[in-house]
Amino acid sequence: MDSFACKDGKVTTMSNHSGGIQGGISNGAPITFKVAFKPVATLMRDINTIDRNGNEVTLHPHGRHDPCVVPRAVPIVEAMAALVILDNMLLARVSRI
User: Taking a C-beta distance cutoff of 8 angstroms, is the pair 20, 32 a contact?
Assistant: First the structure.
């Protein structure tokens, strides 16, 4: 938990160890959080499927095709965080009606 203090006439926290959220409410500090991903799995067996023309084909996977999800993960995590914050803002607005 972050201790509160008064700096320049404003109430603020001494640190941001809580990630900007205390008790489910933003304390005005930057909101931070950690994200973890499991390694992307590649099925190492033949896969029967169809192509765009409806012809039966067999895929023969080899190696890991996407060893690093970071380039795609960053915008997805940012967008999901924005959606969660917006959803909670809308829920708070509805509860006041």
Answer: yes
